[in-house]
Recover the amino acids of this structure.
């Protein structure tokens, strides 16, 4: 079984029910964005066994609604930090609020001290798709590939306003933040290769 | 830009054309399977700039056809090792040949000395989908989530024979191989966490 950190015992990360190993159930729309960055829909309790195998250090939650109490309990019991940057769920969320939330979400993703990190909204389609889309722009992906990935998760629910937002998002606003991280990790003759730029 | 290894200069990994930085073009159907494992359709020369940013150590190619000469040249120039385990491209490939190829492909994926590794066939749908599906079974994913991921990449081209193959694939045949790798890396009080089990 491939997970982020080797388990201490062969069975760690599996759900044990009545002495039997149960298969792991990833959240809906789950995928790996990069090593240490995951995306999905809102996890339900049936997914907690799977999430344990990821060894998460943090979660970025992009909805306005309070985080479900069962999810709060799961995170608290595993020492996982929750970052909530709420974006309205409709087709036309406030532009300023969305840009603010996406920028803050990107900062969390870029800082490997938060990894492994799971990004999710409710269905893992639109708000999560916007954040991942902007992240891909930071990675210099061409815009058609960014849109193709967005569409793969949004399926029949593609929102033109999301595509316009991703296309118009100015990644240069992240420049100073990236420089600050690079300085923090690389200025003092540190040869650690923790920062994945 | 997030890549596997930090570049030596800020522009490394970007395609420079006439003094201008060009956006990176991932291959069709590109995705991250796990940290260090990627999947896609057959890369074309326009994708080579992107592939460079992944710092690939190996490629698993699942077609019978000879590897295109431009791709061979790219791999050779970057010291990337090619593993070719050919499976026929039709709807009903030979069962024995497919099982043999998938088993050999899994062995390459499981050995982190081959990472970062890119798995691809022609379109990144069926043969690649089978290999990734069996890899997910090794990760103890429930079969419905394995199928959901397969369908995301196969889109309208889902092949029932592929789903039956994945469902029937006996991951226990990998048991001895996994034990051999674990023994090799962990037997001598080595505390390296290279092996991601």
């Amino acid at each position: 079984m491939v997970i982020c950190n080797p388990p201490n015992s062969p069975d760690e990360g599996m759900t044990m029910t009545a002495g039997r190993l149960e298969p792991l159930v990833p959240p809906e729309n789950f995928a790996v964005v990069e090593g240490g960055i995951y995306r999905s829909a809102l996890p339900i309790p049936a997914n907690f066994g799977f999430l344990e195998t990821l060894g998460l250090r943090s979660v970025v939650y992009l909805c306005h609604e309070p985080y479900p109490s069962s999810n709060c309990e799961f995170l608290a019991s595993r020492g996982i930090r929750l970052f909530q940057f709420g974006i309205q769920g409709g087709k036309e969320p406030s532009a300023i609020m969305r840009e603010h939330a996406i920028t803050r979400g990107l900062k969390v993703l870029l800082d490997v001290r938060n990894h492994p990190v799971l990004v999710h909204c409710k269905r893992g389609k639109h708000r999560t798709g916007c954040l991942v889309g902007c992240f891909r722009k930071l990675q210099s992906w061409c815009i058609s590939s960014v849109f193709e990935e967005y569409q793969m998760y949004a399926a029949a629910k593609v929102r033109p306003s999301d595509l316009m937002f991703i296309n118009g998002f100015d990644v240069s606003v992240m420049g100073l933040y990236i420089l600050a991280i690079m300085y923090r990790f690389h200025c003092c003759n540190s040869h650690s290769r923790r920062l994945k730029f």
Q: What stands out?
A: The helical segments of chain B are 48-54, 69-78, 95-110, 127-138, 143-154, 160-168, 175-186. Strands of chain B lie at 15-17, 20-22, 31-34, 37-40, 58-63, 81-87, 117-120. Chain B touches chain A through 41 residues (CB under 8 Å). The radius of gyration of chain B is 17 Å.
